[in-house]
Amino acid sequence: MSGYHSWRRRPICDRKEEDALLEQRIQEVHQRSKRRYGAPRIHAELHAGGVRVSRKRVARLMRASGLRAKGKRRWVRTTGSSHTMAVCPNLLERRFEVSQPNQVWALDLTYLPTKEGWLYLAVTLDLHSRAVVGYAMDMQMPATLPLAALQMAAGRRLPPPGLLHHSDRGSQYASGIFQAELARMRARGSMSRKGDCWDNAVVESFFSSLKRELLEDTIFETRDVARQAVFEFIEVFYNRQRRHSSLGYLTPLEFERQATAA
């Protein structure tokens, strides 16, 4: 309380000057995140940079400046479970908290609009840190698309036998070539219950963030432009810079480093 009363006793002009300087820092963080951050993440970023300020004050100054995070949008699912191929049981059972990297991965597909048509995106996430460990893009979505995302992740991470790999029941994941790759990796397959997006909620949340923070009202001119934007979002921003509330406002790679150093 003494700090609060000390602040209250300062001349109004001094407090206004402090607010103006802080507002400038907030605007810098907001612009650096490409308007993706709201008050909680901006507060965490300021705190990491040594700026001691309350989240309420950050929120107040953001409102005064008209700053806000990009809003949510609704999107259509891309995969379907209307096929006759065998499906895996739901071994994950929504246990999304994972103690170490490369124990549980989750994969899903989505699409991005371009003026040339859809660009389909497959991503593989490590549920421990929410890091994107593999991804692939194509103008169509055959079984080879998620397979490429899985193979990128496997090549980067070299997971041990017993990895649990979760997806929905889409035909791409039930296909022979995808299941053969899981077997070659000695990984266990797990699939969501039919029509239940909450069984793969972490990847759904990633897609929601990507489309909210990357697209907003944008339609990319070409698929190549969209590919580059996705690459930069994942490799430059999401894994290395984006602070996650579920990780104590650490980035995915910071969270992993702390886990492996412990």
Automatic annotation (TrEMBL):
<dbReference type="InterPro" id="IPR048020">
    <property type="entry name" value="Transpos_IS3"/>
</dbReference>
<dbReference type="InterPro" id="IPR050900">
    <property type="entry name" value="Transposase_IS3/IS150/IS904"/>
</dbReference>
<dbReference type="GO" id="GO:0003676">
    <property type="term" value="F:nucleic acid binding"/>
</dbReference>
<dbReference type="InterPro" id="IPR036397">
    <property type="entry name" value="RNaseH_sf"/>
</dbReference>
<dbReference type="GO" id="GO:0015074">
    <property type="term" value="P:DNA integration"/>
</dbReference>
<dbReference type="InterPro" id="IPR001584">
    <property type="entry name" value="Integrase_cat-core"/>
</dbReference>
<protein>
    <submittedName>
        <fullName>Putative transposase</fullName>
    </submittedName>
</protein>
<dbReference type="Pfam" id="PF00665">
    <property type="entry name" value="rve"/>
</dbReference>
<feature type="domain" description="Integrase catalytic">
    <location>
        <begin position="97"/>
        <end position="260"/>
    </location>
</feature>
<dbReference type="Pfam" id="PF13333">
    <property type="entry name" value="rve_2"/>
</dbReference>
<dbReference type="Pfam" id="PF13276">
    <property type="entry name" value="HTH_21"/>
</dbReference>
<dbReference type="InterPro" id="IPR025948">
    <property type="entry name" value="HTH-like_dom"/>
</dbReference>
<dbReference type="InterPro" id="IPR012337">
    <property type="entry name" value="RNaseH-like_sf"/>
</dbReference>
